[in-house]
Amino acid sequence: MNKLLVSPAPHIHTKTSTRSLMTDVVIALLPSVIVSVLFYGWPAVIVLASSVIFCTLLEYLITKFLLKRPNTVSDMSAVVTGIILALNLPPTAPWWVAMIGAAVAVGVAKMTFGGLGQNVFNPAITGRVFLLISFPAIMTSWGGGKSFIPGIDAVSGATPLGIVKESLAQGMTLDQIYAANDFSYLDMLFVNIGGSAGEISAIAILVGFIYMLARKVIRPYITLSILVTVAVFSGIFWLIDPAQYTDPLFNLLTGGVLLGSVFMATDYVTSPMSDKGGIIFGVGIGIITMLIRYFGSYPEGMSFAILIMNATVPLINKFCKQKKYGRA
Q1: First to last CA, the chain
Q2: What's the half-sphere exposure (Cβ side, CA atoms, 13 Å) at 213?
Q3: What's this model's pTM, rounded to 2 decimal places?
């Protein structure tokens, strides 16, 4: 006699796991990590190691002694948070700054809500924004250490966004600013002119993006909607007044737009579940980022934009639902 077995969903199983997904993200982050270490030297290594160790250790301690649950460190999510947090810090930030950022990222933004899958805000960005508000001098000091590349000094100095913001406030035009600072789009593409450790190379970030797409770790909708929105928004203002508003290419290659749109906005837990919702989410991030860049007091707005849109995800998910399996 045949027996009918009834079991709850899901009924289709794959070899994909949290650990395998996080491992792919770590691999995608490696180009950015390697470039930052090569150009910033030992300071970047210290920041990276401190961030990853503290994130992992704190998650272990909280899980074991406070939540009294099985260890979740092996799923690699703490490692991913540590790497992304480190890539959002200045390469010469003290180790204790990375420790505080890790405490906020894992202890507050992640484990307070119950751990992976239950947090509302992206942990790494929460840690970064907390540090930016608490230690603005350290978080905006971009001097680099000794490069590991022979004959090349580490990238240092203020970020292009910071230089433009300050110079425009002093009454200079963009043509004057570009001439005085010798900005090169080629440099911004391969080796950025100042910035956090992860912003140094747009090419390295794009390599990671292509890898995650190929491995089907992420879908392109969120990332592309952010980039297109930033380009369109800045393009409109640039056409209106090119002497006061930076062009689309400048806005795409500088600051944290690429790093944020590829590795942080696409976080499974804090982004919408549907493709339509992802596009709305990305458009919102792009608009808020450019509003802060053009009209806010901070030169960069990517981190704030992602956190703000993280808070809207439950509402987006409510109105933009995926089609149920088997439904036309």
Answers
A1: 35
A2: 13
A3: 0.91
